[in-house]
Amino acid sequence: MKTILYCQKKSLFTLLLLIGVSLGCDQGFDEMNVNPNAYTTPVVGNLFTYSLIRTAGTGTNDRNRTNIKYFAGVVQYMASLGTNWAGDKYVESGQFGDFFETAYSVHIKELQEVIAATEGKPDQINLNAIANIWRIYALHRVTDAYGDIPYTEAGQGYLTKTYKPKYDRQSDIYPAMLSGLEKAIGQLDPAKPSYGISDVVFQGNVAKWKTFGYSLMLRLAMRLTKVDAKAAETWAKKAIAGGVMTSNADIAKLNHVAGNPNTQNWDAAELKRESFPESNRGKGPVKLAKTLIDMLQARNDPRLPFYATLWEGNILSIQNEKLPVTTNPKLQKGLPNGYDANTIKQVIPDWSNDMLVNYSEPNTGTIASLNAPTVFQSYAEVEFLLAEASLRGWDASSAENHFRKAITASMQSTTLFPGNVVISPSDINAYLAAQPLNAATFDGKMEQIHNQFYLAHFMWTDNFEAWSNWRRTGYPKLSPITYPGNFTGGAPLVRLRYPISETTLNKENYEAVVARQGPDLYTTPVWWDKR
Length: 531
Fold this sequence. Notes:
Layout: H1 2-24, H2 41-55, H3 61-74, E1 78-80, H4 86-89, H5 98-105, H6 107-118, H7 125-146, H8 157-160, H9 170-187, H10 206-223, H11 229-242, E2 252-254, H12 266-274, E3 286-288, H13 290-298, H14 304-307, E4 308-311, E5 325-326, E6 361-362, E7 374-377, H15 379-391, H16 399-412, H17 425-434, H18 442-456, H19 463-473, H20 502-505, H21 507-517
Antiparallel strand pairs: 1-3, 2-7, 4-5, 4-6
Helix pairs in contact: 1-2, 2-6, 2-7, 3-5, 3-12, 3-19, 5-6, 6-7, 7-9, 7-10, 9-10, 10-11, 10-15, 15-16, 15-18, 16-18, 18-19
């Protein structure tokens, strides 16, 4: 296992060095006597790798900022006394549109070039199909965040000179994504070449991409439960019949390697640099949120030491040594959301910033390590969705069984992260016995399922998914935010605003989408959000 992991990490590092060379040496291509549209397989592989790592946030702060400073605060995984954490306080940020801009200008553009270069070539059918699956993954994040977006014309600037793409309705995008997944999955052929080591998610394993494709189909199908239950049922059943994830070995993730900016986990790096460097000695303004810590402690959740650490010692007297930390669950404490260093005194009258040392931070030895993987979709998520599908009568298997499998998968997945934290089978079984799916009503069972979904999704990429799942289900029940000047009236924001640049560079299409979808505000829900 260690040898395989080392080889995978070495391959990732080598690939990224090659990509850096290939992308950094593009000056003067117009002077070369070559066809700029004639791609070779190695170039296609590099472009695909580049798109994968960019989707994970490597090399750009825009995705990381959105995932951590916005969504982790919105869903109350994290809290900050810093006024620049807009997601914690539901206040305006001129950077809410950055994720949109980066997605289209970086990894979606690269994917379109891969798709165009491999289209209609039988020997590259897997390259084309996998790129299409990943395009759908990348764009589903964008439409879930903004609503109506450019979809059919996305990333076509270089290929077709479409510099002002139209916005598609989300009600059209979702059927297109689902049918697109079905088509791409159907094209996968294990007997034909794949990406090999250029695929830093599944290492070119076509069967794994098929499983991921159906698992993503299940996620998208369940988004439709409030707006088109019939379509949701149809597509959920197709996904289940096709074959979704069945173990943690199927998780879609990108491994990271600390020590190099091109390979480390950028979410962890940026959060550590800005929010809790060792120089802060426990007094940084960013902490784990009270909502998260309270829910974990109330359930005696064995994942709490994996998620959280607390600085120990007298921070005022120790000057040079590194303060020790503790993962003792009983000592962990969450910071309330929606306050700054002054307004926190409304709930803690004797507050001083020296008290920050008493509040928990993400565990930098595990979940917040520079070596921590970026998880795109987990097996635990799939089992939670299967539990809901069974609850709705769409699957003959037991909702209780899927619920237990989901929690177990989440707890067993801690070994995939640095620190090799092992939650014992006895601890897992004790937790399952104390947390049965036993509510008397459908809504009660939905709350149980999706509260556990929330607790399982505190991982770097899945702040996106926790926010989307909260908008669809309403769980968990989040605390209202009353920070002065908040733009939602205290309720969590339900979408992001489009980039300001769209109001001028793509003015006609921007005005059309606002007239159709509703005001470009954080309180305008996306199509599938019908809580």
